[in-house]
Amino acid sequence: MEKLTPHNIMLMLLSLGILLGVARVLxxxxxxxxxxxxxxxxxxxxxxxxxxxxxLAPGLSLFLFPQSGTNAxxxxxxxTLAIVLFLMVAGIEVDLSTIWKQGRVGLKVGITSIVIPFxxxxxxAWFIPQALGKEQDVTPLIFALFIATAMSISALPVxxxxxxDLDLYRSDLGMVVVSAAIFNDIxxxxxxAVVLGLIDGTSGEGANQIISTIVMTIAFAGFMFxxxxxxxxxxxxxxxxxxRWPGGELSFALILALFGASFTEWIGIHAIFGAFLVGAxxxxxxxxxxxxxxxxxxxxxxxxxxxxxxxxxxxxDFVTNFDFPLVLTVLMIVCxxxxxxxxxGAKWGKxxxxxxxxxxxxxxxxxxxxxxxxxxxxxxxxxxxRLFVALVVVxxxxxxxxxxxxxxxxxxxxxxxxxxxxFSKLFIRELKSISRRDVIHEIVQVACKEFNxxxxxxxxxxxxxxxxxxxxxxxxxxxxxxxxxDLAYPLVVVGISDTGIDFDSPDGRLANIIFLxxxxxxxxxxxxxxxxxxxxxxxxxxxxxxxxxxxxxxxxLALIKSRSAGSKEDE
Amino acid sequence: MEKLTPHNIMLMLLSLGILLGVARVLxxxxxxxxxxxxxxxxxxxxxxxxxxxxxLAPGLSLFLFPQSGTNAxxxxxxxTLAIVLFLMVAGIEVDLSTIWKQGRVGLKVGITSIVIPFxxxxxxAWFIPQALGKEQDVTPLIFALFIATAMSISALPVxxxxxxDLDLYRSDLGMVVVSAAIFNDIxxxxxxAVVLGLIDGTSGEGANQIISTIVMTIAFAGFMFxxxxxxxxxxxxxxxxxxRWPGGELSFALILALFGASFTEWIGIHAIFGAFLVGAxxxxxxxxxxxxxxxxxxxxxxxxxxxxxxxxxxxxDFVTNFDFPLVLTVLMIVCxxxxxxxxxGAKWGKxxxxxxxxxxxxxxxxxxxxxxxxxxxxxxxxxxxRLFVALVVVxxxxxxxxxxxxxxxxxxxxxxxxxxxxFSKLFIRELKSISRRDVIHEIVQVACKEFNxxxxxxxxxxxxxxxxxxxxxxxxxxxxxxxxxDLAYPLVVVGISDTGIDFDSPDGRLANIIFLxxxxxxxxxxxxxxxxxxxxxxxxxxxxxxxxxxxxxxxxLALIKSRSAGSKEDE
Lengths: 571, 571
Known about the structure:
Two copies of one chain form a homodimer.
Chain A: H1 6-32, H2 37-48, H3 53-56, H4 58-64, H5 70-93, H6 96-102, H7 104-127, H8 140-152, H9 156-165, H10 172-202, H11 206-225, H12 227-242, H13 247-266, H14 271-283, H15 290-315, H16 324-348, H17 353-362, H18 367-379, H19 385-410, E1 422-428, H20 436-451, H21 455-468, E2 472-474, E3 477-478, E4 481-484, E5 491-501, E6 511-520, H22 524-537, H23 543-549, H24 553-570
Helix pairs in contact in A: 1-2, 1-5, 1-15, 2-15, 5-14, 5-15, 6-10, 7-8, 7-10, 7-16, 8-10, 9-10, 10-11, 11-12, 12-14, 13-14, 16-17, 16-19, 17-19, 18-19, 20-21
């Protein structure tokens, strides 16, 4: 049996490790700057592939990521599997019932945000194809149809993430945008599948082949949204009841996705289309357990997706193929018509002027989906490397614009998070004081010194509040707090006392863990939000003991972040 | 860039789907018969590969699983990745601190269960190699060393699973066995790595190469168990504190495993060795969050491991290479010396006669590890197909013997599980009765009819108990119960009443869900255990409402299984 030599294995694991490592680090950095992770992940491939490493050290780049031979095939196999699983997850995230619940407004936005960019994209690509770098040997109709699709597709995952960051995901506006994006996703992929079918047809197989592919595509999509969906919904309880939990459900989802993907590849459109439809059908079932969804989501989002997006950067040289006028043209088309499309739909749905523009900017993200569509078009020979690079760049730029633009228009209330208010300099592992008054003085002093606050003012404010009513909440925790003028953002000083301090708690226990919460006077909600987050931490019985065992700020922050995320999911 | 054609992609996804599907179904069936899942997963490959499908429909088998070309490479790449991740998980499961805690007895069993089979395995392979089917061109020393290692290796995952099934995992005896198996695993893999190093050396690279490989192997193992382990322990809190939870931790573990695997492949031993050592170092850190461990474990155990074990069956024809005398010889050697080795160690540790034999049988499982060692030896050319098949068969047989033999010796108390006492015929979706007396009569009747019990006797026993003290436990649940003579196993009848029945519950709520628990009189603990399991279900606030929404027995069982498993993990 033909198989990998030890050298192939060594190289495959090394290159996967490097690809995943760089992609994850850059993805994390992108998120620190409130950008989608996919921006960093793509950049990893650009750094490791022909663009950067390939021009600095061509030998090393080709050694790690060879363009031909066994290792090229191995990496392609793994990244193909990765994209199939990623689209399955994207499908699972699609919640069809949202569209029905949200009703007309979402549908209107969905329709205009597809029809308008599609129509104008088609016109431009049809009448001035040379402006978009069309190659001579590509059929004009296919090229125009592809451009039209690429202009109108949206990136549901990126859009959903942006809405969550802005705390708008569950708002009315958020639901309109999400349902529009779901509609957009489904229609967009079906149209794109039909376009791919047309190519296969024109490459010498005749009209019958085209029609058969298109009919089968639409039939399969129709099946998955009706009978297939119901069948899966009926089968899930059997799988849960008669197999080991949660392995049965997990395998069931993956096996169906693999078969769906294989089937759509067979009928002449891409595998990811089947994976997406199967994912949508599975995710739509109320029987799918949250735990299974989370396991698949974590493994795919943090392992497979970064590998796939990084591998895109390995395929193309982003510097030599960077064509500024082309990038600008594509960017202008996408921004103009997607923005107008989304905004008009929202106005049509009788939303306010401001909300309509917000919807328009929300629908702007082309994100990961635009990149995938571009990649498939590149591989199918519809577009050249220059247009592919332009599409990737525009996908990234629109995803980066979307969130900040919405923030500018809406000026939403900031989502206050405890972890943003913690600083290593505001962590006192061992408090010296033993009385309540002294401890407050000790921790206030630390905050004032590090952040240049007026010691007397803060100290007296905190003590005044403390004297009025003790802030010992029991379970060994106390939460002294105050609102202070001229503070830019909330600060939380954490002090730990192994001996304990009497904060006059209702349960009579000494307080070992003191959180001093200092918030700006002009954002009253920040105090309440942060106090509630601290109190929620201690619903977990073991939290008090775990915090006493931390040795330094990093341990403490690690505990807060991993526990608070866990408890959110469990709620 | 060399890559998969659409046909390759279609075929890869199809063959993966079939391989995973058949492996998981047979794995589940194996577990229904209380056998390790790996037995069914291996069988899947035997069915789909040259052994069965290959002789019934050779064209189809070769179409799905080609022996050469792009798809063979793609499948090999994915199954190589799968085995690397599987060994990482096996490493994470290894808890080094268990060895220290358990102390001398575990260590004694660990030593004797390696030394005795190793010594006698070596002697037999050295003096009568032809009995074990040694090929002419294999160096006698390497062959003897390999046989010695293969005879002494244990399968920690299978052993741990068997102990859990018998409810012995946390017992003293269980801890002795687990710590011995961990010791055995670590020493076994290091010795095997050295043997692999020797082969590389003898294939023309000279003595320096051998020594360098062996030194690097031992140095790497030593590093991972000391400095590497501590470094990971120090780094984990940083990863948790400064990356998104839980993605950072998940990727960190996988990236390290990939690098470790690549490194050991590079020094001339197999990649899985590095993955195992990295896994052991990561799993040893108390900072690793349970949630991350579970996510990795589920995805690898239910997706990657089945694909890998099934792919083994694709490589060899298990019928033509089945050599009965050889299988019997290997089986005799393994059974005799591993059994003696484990038992002597336990006696040496002053355990009782009965407990010592139990330990001996527990250590008998060669399981998955034996198969992996055999596969590596086959690929390295140390053994032929016939010996490989014999090793696989013996690995399976020993894993199948181990549990039942321990059960025979110990006659442990049966682990009563609610789900085993539920039957679709004992599920009444809509109770007709509306009074407590009538409802009890109605559900008792169903049980007596289906299982031929004496209606009058059971009815009066249940009612007697009910009259003495109401069994309404509140939250809308009642648990009438009785112990009955001549019953083979516990029965639970479930009755649902949308209107509700007054069971005089402490919270005054009507009972909508009635569990009638009938247990055998001679197993008093079965009643308590099952009642406790039902009560625990309703700690989850949403459980009552979810049960009322179930439409049939399958829905109900699915709910019970997925919720109760979830709550166990959360505890």
